Amino acid sequence: MTPLTNFHAHTTFDDGTESCEAMVEAAISKGCAAFGISGHAPMGFPTRWCMTRENEPVFIEEMRRLKEKYAGQIVLFPGVERDFYSPGTVYSYDYVIGSVHYIKKDGALLSVDDTEKVQTEDVRRYFGGDVYAYTRAYYETVADVVQKTSPDFIGHFDLVTKFNEGGKHFDETDPRYLRPALEALAAITEKQKLFEINTGAMYRAGRTVPYPSPVLLKALCERGGEIILSSDSHDGASIGYKFGAAAELARSCGFTYAMTLTDKGFVGYKL
Ligand SMILES: [Zn+2]
Ligand SMILES: [Zn+2]
Predict the structure, then answer these.
(1) Domain range for residue 220?
(2) For residue 79, which ligand has an atom nearest its CA?
(3) Total domain count for the chain?
């Protein structure tokens, strides 16, 4: 049987809407065997979506408390989602998700996943309207995410497609999009094989497929990559959202097993 586990989740310590304990109770009620909360690491400048440096040890301590309180019901892990441009952390987490949320251009950090309006305006203002130059800049950053974040797995590999449902802004089969994406995939899998299949934007942004897209998932499988199912949950209701469909998609792309985190590290289970 496929175990329900999720290690990509946010709380009121960063940009989630519920406390750690409420998220843990939601995970238990859904039948999660193991659950991790991955607070956004501080960016080194004020943000409304990251933990603060002061809050990091409070978060870790709260997760330790919950781990003891709910022992026997669920296995808990304090994790961190580290952005490419996050300066890193002095605290010790059980695991790290490596993610890119920004493109750096002309000295500015451009948020890739803020809103569709912001993304469209940045393409116009910083890339002369060339959306493929924008997506290439994103994947050039992604290609180095392992060196920058030392992750246990890669977060939302093709986040740049967040607002591109139905090919609204660019053609995901166009080589100008696909080539840099595949090059980034190749660079990453030299160093880190484990990528999440992330259903978060299916729940929150009306997307019909998870990250990465089927084309990229197939390429990942061909490169010997591995997957872990994530719901990138910002509320309890979304934990495990569409995992059945994500597993089915993974199987159709050639994957025969997925990974999950245990007290003994990452282990595989049959899909
Ligand atoms: Zn993220
Ligand atoms: Zn996240």
Answers:
(1) 5-270
(2) 2
(3) 1
